[in-house]
Each structure stands twice: as C-alpha cells, then as structure tokens.
Amino acid sequence: MSPLLDINLDKIRYNTAQVREKCRQQGIAVLGVTKGFSAMPQIVSAMLAGGADGLADSRMENIIELRNSGFTQPITLLRIPELSDVENVVRYADISVNSEITVMEALAETAQKTEKSHQVILMVDVGDLREGILKEHVLETAKQISRLKGVRLLGLGTNMGCFGGVLPSTDNLGLLVELGFRIENQLGFKLEVISGGGTSTLLLVENRKVPAGINQLRIGEGILLGTDTTNQRKISWLWDDAFVLSAEVIELKSKPSVPMGDIGRDAFGNVPEFVDIGIRKRAILALGKQDVYIEGIVPVDGNLKILGASSDHLIVDVTDTEQDIKVGDNISFQLTYSGLVSASHSRYVAKKFREVQ
Ligand SMILES: *Cc1c(COP(=O)(O)O)cnc(C)c1O
C-alpha cells in the first residue's frame, strides 16, 4: 500500500540530542515543537528521549491529544489563544504565548475559577510583523499582566522568519533581553524565560552569537528535517532524512512532452504550459494533492523530475535516472516543512515508525 511515510525515530532522537547539547552549552533550553507532524506520540517520545526540555504546539487539538496520550511534560501553546478557547488552554497547556491583554484577562479569570495556574509568555514583535506587541508597549503590558490573578508572566518571547522573513540577530534578540531586564528592574520580579525563536536561531547558536539572557528556543524544522528554510540551508550536523515519503508506480510509459489537442484548464482550473522536449519516459505514482502538498516533496533521486500532479496522480519524468524503474516499484521523496505537515495529517498516507534501538 502506498503512499507511505517512513519515519526514522532514531534520527529524530539523535537530532534532538544534538540540538539540545549545542543549546545547553550556552544555557538555552529546547522545546520540541510537535505541530509539524500532528504531534504523533511516537515522534514526541523520540524528541523526549533525545532530551527535549518541554513540548510546544500551535494547535489545541494536538495539545489535547498529547495529554490524552499521557504526556505530562510542560506544554507551551505556540499560537496566541483564541478568546473562545481559553478554558481548553488553561486546562491542557501549562504555558501560552500571548499578545492581547483581553485574552490574558480571560485566561486569568478561567485559571482562578478552575484553580489552575497558567503562565504566559508575552510575545514581542522585534521586526517580523507576525505576532507580538511593539517594544514601546512592553513595560506597560507587563505591568498589566502582573496585576492579574491566575496567570503569571513567565517571560518574553519573539518569533522571526515567518511573515516578514526577518532573520534573528544579535541585535534583535539583544533587544528582547534588554526589554526583559527593563521589566525586572522596574517591576521588581524575575522573568524565567526569554524565548528567542525557532530553528532560524540555531545559526546564531552555532556561531555563538546568541546574546546572553536568551534561555529558550522552540525547535521544530531543524530537529525533524535537518533544514533551516529561513536561512536557506541544510544543517550539516543533523540528519535530513528522518522522514521519507514513498509512493508506488502505477503506470510507466513513454509519451510526448506536450499534450495533444486544444488546451483548456487542468484539474485545478489553471492553464498549463508545456515545452516540447520530445518523447519522455513518465511514471504515474499513486500520490496526489489529497495526500501531500506537492510543492513540498523532493525526489531522493536527483535525476527524477516532478512534472505535475492532480488529486490522486503524480507524474514524474524518469527518463534521466539510472535506476531501472518498473510498475509496482516505490519512488522516494524527502519533504520540506509544508510537505511534512500535509503528509502527517493526511489519512491516506500510512505511517511506519522505524527504531533500531
Ligand atoms: C512553529 C513555531 C516554532 C517552530 O519553528 P521551527 O522553524 O519549525 O523551528 C517556534 N515558535 C513558534 C511561535 C511557532 O509557531
């Protein structure tokens, strides 16, 4: 049966351990981010076996499942909570990232009512223009949070490389640390966490450029895929093939490279364009847009070329490969983050967990 997502748990454990060790040497804790793989418990366990200091996810559904699977580690909700969902947030997550005082008030009220304690990380926008308050509002907002009963201000956090593509730097992370100091000095309490981003901050860790004071990172992509999309690099000291997607060849034929007949629209309403490069050998795979985000998969064999896909069929030019591909063979792909996200939650993609030790 295909498609199949083959998951090497040893490599995920190894990657987590490597990231954690590099960060630990600089006093930085690592949260394992589980949203990229729908928080599948086997993978979460591999992250924890590798030494992740805690878990984090952007979706309450995943966090609730983590709790139902018996994970008792501290979990941070990575997306600003919905006002309509504060009960679940307080019940299932220990910590949430926040930027709206209205939401924090609701969290506080719920926490008090249910006699739970909830901790918040105040997100500061240092330039990427996704979530977070601007620096000039940090002190005032921290003061407001400190007056709330039921929630505690655990620290500050920032997110980068997501909307604006802004790279983490000694400067913008230094600003976060500085804002933390200002809160501590002027409001008279300690902040436990200064959370300096995700995978894109690992480059600064490698180069020992993370300003002192940053003591947490939230890592998904690097651990899972060994890549750092924001900095456009493969992370040389991590495995990049913990996940391999494969699908079976269901047709293999030589055909012209340009369709014959009047061209209308393809299955998704787009007008396709073709260049005539003669007769090509093409494989059709039992894999389509319903299974995975096609732009997020890359053939392991660099001589294969994806020509396109519809809902259920992937068309691959196999003319240039040295492999002897036959009907019934499986073709393997590596995944980008969006490829992994989509394949993980597709119910059509079977999952196989590999673990040697
Ligand atoms: C997804 C996410 C992360 C993890 O990012 P990676 O690039 O996968 O390491 C960190 N922080 C927040 C707020 C996120 O939403």
User: SSE string, helix = H, strand = E?
Assistant: EHEHEHEHEHEHEHEHEHEEEEEEEEHE
Structural Rg: 23 Å
CATH class of the largest domain: Alpha Beta
User: Which ligands occur here?
Assistant: pyridoxal-5'-phosphate
Q: Give me the CATH fold name of the largest domain.
A: TIM Barrel
Domain unit count: 2
Largest sheet: 8 strands, mixed
What do these coordinates show?
One of its GO terms (molecular function) is alanine racemase activity. It comes from Methylomusa anaerophila. Keywords: Isomerase, Pyridoxal phosphate. Its cofactor is pyridoxal 5'-phosphate. This is Alanine racemase. The model has no long low-confidence stretch (mean pLDDT 96). Strands 1, 12, 13, 14, 15, 16, 17 and 18 form an eight-stranded mixed sheet that branches. Strands 8-7-6-5-4-3-2-9 form an eight-stranded parallel sheet. A two-stranded antiparallel ribbon has the order 10-11. A hairpin with a 4-residue loop joins strand 10 and strand 11. The chain starts with a strand and ends with a strand. Helix 1 packs across helix 2 (41-49) and helix 4 packs across helix 5 (101-114). With 357 residues, the chain is α/β, with parallel strands linked by helices. The protein folds into two domains: 9-230, Alanine racemase (TIM Barrel, Alpha-Beta Barrel), CATH 3.20.20.10; 243-354, Elongation Factor Tu (Ef-tu), domain 3. The chain contains ten helices and 18 strands. Bound molecules: pyridoxal-5'-phosphate.
